[in-house]
Amino acid sequence: RGTVTPVRKNGKRNSVGRRFISFMGAVMVVGAGMCGCKSGPQLTEDQQRGKRIYETLCDKCHKLISPKQHTDNEWIAASDRYGLKLNLQTNEVALLKAYLTRANDTDF
What's the CA gap between 44 and 107, in Å, rounded? Predict the structure, then answer.
């Protein structure tokens, strides 16, 4: 039960049944390929690293907010300020800025 079996006619499989099974197989393959995919811009490797810094360090002291809530200049200033407070390396602050200024773009 629950499966579609092509009807046999004169000992041969019905071509409609074969076409249906092929169609459903194609739908499953395409659907599996699309599952979990996001359309639109993706983060670079450095921006992804900056995102991990943001998600792991910033929420230790306060609730994370959407990067869209501040301008690039505000995020740059906040990254510099908190980078000093948290003793972040210069490259870590740069990664944090790269993520936050990208993630607040209107097309992201």
Answer: 15
